[in-house]
UniProtKB/TrEMBL annotation:
Organism this protein belongs to: Actinoallomurus iriomotensis
Pfam families the record matches: Abhydrolase_1
Segments crossing the lipid bilayer: none
Protein name as it appears in the record: Alpha/beta hydrolase
Single GO term (MF): hydrolase activity
Keywords tagged on the record: Hydrolase
Residue stretches making up the AB hydrolase-1 domain: 23-253
């Protein structure tokens, strides 16, 4: 593990296979998780010889926690600063859920640093008025009650119920990540996401290869959201992972990794 200090915040990260093929793949976790959610993809992609960088976002995992509000812009800037620290100019950037929205924000701010995008189980639309109310109310609840009750409630939407029964280790991993997250960091991210901009227009300007992945049973970001992004981004590829909910990279890692490999190495198709 490495640690990079950005201002007063320590950002924890892993840099796998640093001498591997360029451009590196950078993977951004969702809420309320940490970089360990990408373990199956890190093993798979690094084994194929590519460099893979996975940070813990501020407020999550082993990175520093900041109270208040963390906009998506701040998360994207942290990633850019980490890349500067590592001397990395261009990347393929992927993210799931909130991580996917951070990828969209990174594209809006730093399009020249991108060689490819992976958008998994995410949505480009701005938050609605009701969504803002719900996210801020949830932030208040997490600060008041902690992560345990929330984690128990959303597990069956993060991981499809059938997969909770079939793959208990996956469900336990997802639950453990959620319970271990700092309520302060999670609340700050929720308040930031409540004010997220609309990325529909900026996605239409994407000019790099893009893979869009979605679990077939995802309730948080349904297939229609993935189809919208597929229509918006010229030449993008859409992969629907059947039998998975919001975490297809953990619920169906073989299928997710196959789609990722085809995207990263198109000559292998």
């Amino acid at each position: 593990m490495g640690t990079f200090t950005n201002g007063q915040i320590a950002i924890a990260y892993d840099d796998h296979n640093p001498e591997g093929a360029e451009p590196p793949l950078v993977l951004v976790h969702g809420h309320p998780f940490d970089r360990s959610m990408w373990a199956p993809q890190v093993r798979h992609v690094a084994r194929d010889g590519r460099r893979v960088i996975v940070p813990d976002l501020r407020g999550y995992g082993q990175s520093g926690v900041v109270p208040g509000k963390t906009p998506l812009r701040t998360f994207a800037q942290d990633i850019a600063e980490l890349l500067d620290h590592l001397g990395v100019a261009e990347i393929v950037l992927g993210g799931l859920s909130m991580g996917g929205q951070i990828v969209m924000e990174f594209h809006r701010l730093f399009p020249d640093r991108l060689r490819g995008l992976v958008l998994a189980d995410t949505a480009p639309q701005a938050e609605t008025d009701e969504g803002r109310r719900v996210r801020n109310a949830m932030a208040d609840r997490l600060l008041r009650e902690g992560m345990g009750g929330y984690a128990d409630e959303v597990l069956a939407k993060m991981v499809a119920p059938a997969n909770i029964r079939r793959f208990p280790a996956v469900a336990e991993h997802v639950l453990a990540m959620m319970r271990a997250t700092s309520p302060v960091g999670a609340a700050a991210a929720l308040r930031g996401r409540a004010e997220r901009p609309d990325y529909v227009a900026s996605l239409s300007r994407v000019r790099v290869p893009t893979l869009i992945v979605v679990g077939g049973d995802d309730e948080f970001t349904p297939i229609d959201d993935a189809r919208l992004m597929h229509r918006l981004i010229p030449g993008s590829t859409l992969a629907v992972i059947e039998g998975a909910a919001h975490m297809p990279n953990l619920e169906r890692p073989a299928e997710f990794n196959e789609a990722l490999s085809r995207f990263l190495t198109p000559s292998a198709q």
